[in-house]
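Encode chain A's predicted structure.
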Amino acid sequence: MNVTVVGSGDAFGSGGRFQTCIAVAIEDIPRVLVDCGATSLTALRRQQIDPNEIDTVVISHLHGDHFGGLPFLILDGQFRRRTRDLTIVGPAGTRARLTDAMEALYSGSSMVERRFDVHVLEHVDAEARRLGELTVTPFEVRHASGAPAYALRLEGPHGSMAYSGDTEWTDALLTASDDVGLFLCEGYSPAPIRWHLDLETLSRQRERFTCRDLVLTHLSPTALAAADLSDWKVAYDGLHLAV
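Encoded structure for chain A:
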């Protein structure tokens, strides 16, 4: 499994980073995205990843910096004559939220007949779902977004990874990342803050993780500017990781 951190930033582009978007390839070509923030089409092209090659997008929660790129991904496929179907897997309410977003951005766009179908599926907490060669398991976490939020575990034939999504501390993170090759974990702030992970709490919990590699992502301006990150691995846009 090869992982590209297409976007490693927070909602506001702190540090000049793109919003959350993680591309996963079982072999050479990325076919799966984990989250698709509003800036993701630009970020994908920066990494020379063709959006039309993406088969599946797995969404952690329904905030714009994690799912807001979906309307653009769909419309880009429409105007570039995409024929490959697209599967989106997200929290309950994903279909309605996506329709609302498309209509707000481009009126009438949700009803257009296209050369490809968009299939929207919903997470069930702790229930594994087979998506091609990947098995994806969501674990509900603590982040207010108008629908359940999830940490995500992805397992392939030769590798595994987990992603925390946005969340306060919860032991569900230990389950999601148990013995995976890579855990991309939010490190939003230096000190505790509601609905997000912080470096102080992660430091206390660090010895409980059984993942082989933990890499921080989704850092706030405070974490980027003021936190002591010398003991942590930190993701950046364009980081490539073999899992």
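The chain has a mean pLDDT of 97.
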